[in-house]
Structure formats: C-alpha cells, structure tokens
Amino acid sequence: MRSLILSFLLLWTAGCKATTPDCKCFPGDSCWPSGDEWDHLNSTVGGRLVATVPLGSPCHNPNFDAQECERLQSEWLYSSIHTESSSSMMAPLFANQSCDPFQPRDKPCTLGNYVRYAVNATSAENVAATLNFAKEKNIRFVIRNTGHDYLGRSTGAGSLSVWTHYLKGTEVIDWKDDHYQGNALKVGAGVQGFEALAAAHAENLVVVTGECPSVGLAGGYTQGGGHSALSTSFGLAADNTLEFEVVTADGELVKASRSENSDLYWALSGGGTGNYGVVISATVRAHPEAQVSGAKFLVAAPEGRPELIYKAIDAFHAALPEIVDSGVMIIYFFSDSFLQIPALTAYDKTEAEVKQILQPLADSLSDLGIKFEPNFTHFPSYYEHYGHYWGPLPAGNIQVGTQLFGGRLLPRSKLKDFSPTARKLAEMGVIYIGVGLNVSRFGVNDANSVLPQWRDSIVQVSLTLPWDNEAPWEEMLATQKRMTEEIQPIIEAATPGAGAYINEADFQQKDWQETFYGVNYDNLLKIKKKYDPGHLFYSTVAVGSEAWSIANDGRMCQSQS
Predict the structure, then answer these.
(1) Could you name the CATH architecture of 5-165+524-558?
(2) Which intervals hold domain FAD-binding PCMH-type (predicted)?
(3) Can you list the residues of the chain whose pLDDT is less than 70?
(4) Helix 307-325 to helix 351-367 angle, to the nearest 10 degrees?
(5) Residue 327, Cβ density class (10 Å: 0-12 exposed, 13-18 middle, ≥19 buried)
(6) 66, 76, 456, 516: which has the fewest C-beta neighbours closer than 10 Å?
(7) Angle, CA 391 vertex, CA 385 and CA 394 arms, to 5°
C-alpha cells in the first residue's frame, strides 16, 4: 500500500506501534473488530453499514469496466459524483492516488486514506450507535457529509465514518428568543446549499449558503465560518446560526443555542468542524427574498502590453472598498495575464445602482486604455440570480479537485500596499481567487467563535496551483510543498497577524492555531475538553488535534511531545 500523503509531506511523526494502548486500533491489529462484530453494528443501525469500495475501482483490474471508467473520468471533476459516495474525496491530495480513474489500469486499487467503513446515518440514533462502536473498539472516528473539503478532514485510513448526507429535511419556522425574532430555516445535517436555497425561496426567503451549491450547510461550511454571496448583506454563515442539535461524545443528543449549552453553540459557530460533536441539524436565520443585480467581466492583457494587467488589478483594489461598502459581494480572479470578475452580487439593488457602483472602476480602467464592458444582470429574486451565476442547479458549474490551496485574509488596512505582493504572486504562476466582502458589522460582542480578523478584512484570498490527475505523484507533492514553503510565506509577510479562512487554506499551515483560530483558541480548547474529554473527535488542524499524530500507514496515535 502506498504510504499516505501526510507522511510524504512530513507533517506528522511516524512509528506508532500496533500494540501500544496510545494508538487507535487499525486494520490488521488483533484488536480490530471481527466480522461478527461489524455485523452486529450493521444490525444495530438497520443495515446501514457500508464497507468502502473506492469509487474509482472500475478503472482498475480486476474490476475494470471500460464504459464505467469512461463515465467516471468525465464526471470526476464535478461534485455530484463524490457527494453520493460514502468515501470519495474531492481533494485529490488526500485521495493519495490510491484508486482514482486516471491512474493506469494495472495499478492496484487500495483503500489507502479512504475510510474503512461508513454508516449511512438517517437518525440521531444511528449516529450515537456509530459513535459508541468507535469508542468501544478504539477506532478512529470521522464525520462526513459531502466530502467537499480541502484539508482531509472527512476521511482517514482505518476509520469508521458517520455519513450524514441523508440527514435531510428542511422546515421554515418562526423563531423567537432574546437574541432574534423572525424567520428561520431548520436543516438536517445532510442538506446542501441548493436544497436550503430552494426551501427558503419557496417561502419567499433567502439563507446564507456557499457559492458552490453542493456544499452542505450545517457541517464544515458553517462551523468553519462560511462566506457567501450574501455575506456583505447578512454576514458569514456562522453569524446566522440560532441552534444546533448535536450528538456529543457520550452519545447524547443535546441542543446548543445562546440559551442552552451556550458554550457548545459558540464553538460550533465558527470554531472549526468535526470536533465538538456530530451535528444532526442546524437552525439559521432566514431573510426576505429580494431583487438582486449582478455583473461579470473579464480584462485580458492587450497584446504587447502585459503590464496593464497589474495596473488593472491595482485599479480594482483601489475601487474595492467603496464597492463592498455599497452592499456588494464580489468574486475576482487574477493571474499574470487576466483579471476576471465572474460574479458580483448586489442584494436588493437595481441594475442602475450596480452600474453606478462600478463607475469609478470603469473610469480608472478607461484612463488606462482598458475596455470595460461588463455583462449586467437583474433578477427579481436571489434564487434566480444564484442559479444564473453558480448554476445550473442543483450541482452547479464549479469544478472540484483541480487545485492545491493556500489562503489568507487580506485586511482592509493592507489593501493599498498590496500591489507588489499581488504582482509577485501572479508572476509565480499563482491563480489568485478573492472574495471581496464587508462583514465588519456582524458577530458583535463575541457572539460566536469566528476568527476575529474576519471583521477587519476586505478580501478572503485563496491562492491556488493546478492539480494534474495524470502527473507523477512526486510532482504534485513538490507543487504542494511549493505552496507551503514558497508561496504562502509571501502573502503572510504582507499581512502579519491577518489569519486565514480555515476551509480554504493550506492544511500544512505552520502556525495553524493562531492563523485559523486566533485569540479564540484557548477557550475553544477548554470547550473541546469539556464535551470530548477522550478526544474521540479528530480532524486535520482542528482544535486539540495536536494531541494526535498520524503514522506512515495512516495509524493514529497520541503525540509524544
């Protein structure tokens, strides 16, 4: 079996021994559950235990199926094929080329970093039974919904996963407590963004969801903060939480809100994912449906004048504060050859208002001799706007598994001095993805555990390098190493103390406790120890994860340091 990616990148220590009590039980160990014991679990959960067969196995001997393999290859870069699997990952680095459809047919298909088993949970009782079995047998426990994760948090070698994807169900309710009175949407842990949006739209409402329609709402997205096309208007996803239903490490189903288990509610609202309990449902604020206007445009370098791209980027950044302060959220990409705005969202604004908002940028680009010819749109609802820019629904148009990530929050105070950094990143071959927004007025009075640096930031930056499914493994490892050791330090030097959005970042972040959690880390660790004293829950760079190490074969052992 190929050693796991984590060992290649020298992230964690190797050498945990199979017989030591400080390690999780691993396949092949004498402590690994017998077939009868797995059968008993399967019976307990109503036949919902799934033994992992990697999704890419039809592309390998002895199960090769040319037609099915061709289908897999054609759909592999889109989320739907992975969300309907109990084990497949959208981040190819963590799939470890163990069994993907782009590797040679005669290469053995192994489980590698995939979960060993999963329980297709449709109730809190299923979740509790799975969790209790993992505790009793001392097996690594993983929480998974869609597998839409760039940090390897929804998988793990030799693990038992609770698969929450079919914890569906939506309900619009009238919420009233001391903190909020108004419409709310309750969603099961398996509800994805497109489902939540449709349920809200049917009642003439909107909710904050991810730009990618297939992202689950209640899990890592919201628990990690969660930006949205509506964030300038309504804040991050974590700013909109009202209540969670959670199965805790002791197998109990509890509610967490500002008035009940408030510390757990605080931790789940931005303090990282898969680490404090298994969320069964989340209730979030719902806002009025409204007209929405949008725009998109592309600026390409004129032939013979490549320097104009950098001037265009500078002009865009100069205009950005007034754009987002006008109530707009804007996504933009740039490299050394283009500046693209694929989606601008102006909630409850007319097309004429958007044109006015963008006029200063248009004037600046015109002064540079650059044509500015946006495509403007206006829709009577956010739902239609969203479908236009991120559809077709349900799956959407965003490809997955095509990039390696780094990331940083860009403080408003550093934007005017960012030009040299932007140019250097572009010249290094980085595709820069920016989410321009203003969430400064949300999350007041420490209402949640969102990284405080979000409130002073004007852009959430993702730095990306391309992933090549057919490239040699060592080449892709070198690309990831380049992101960590060469590219990420450049933006960090330009933004000291800024932090990063944990869901779109480098999983090898060296000072991850400070970068992802900041001043909240110590309090989050106390809450982690209160609700999970035995450290059952674990995920990459989660609060308290430094208590564990991952060995060459994926075995999970207590850290010795």
Answers:
(1) 2-Layer Sandwich (3.30)
(2) 110-289
(3) 1-20, 561
(4) 150
(5) middle
(6) 66
(7) 115
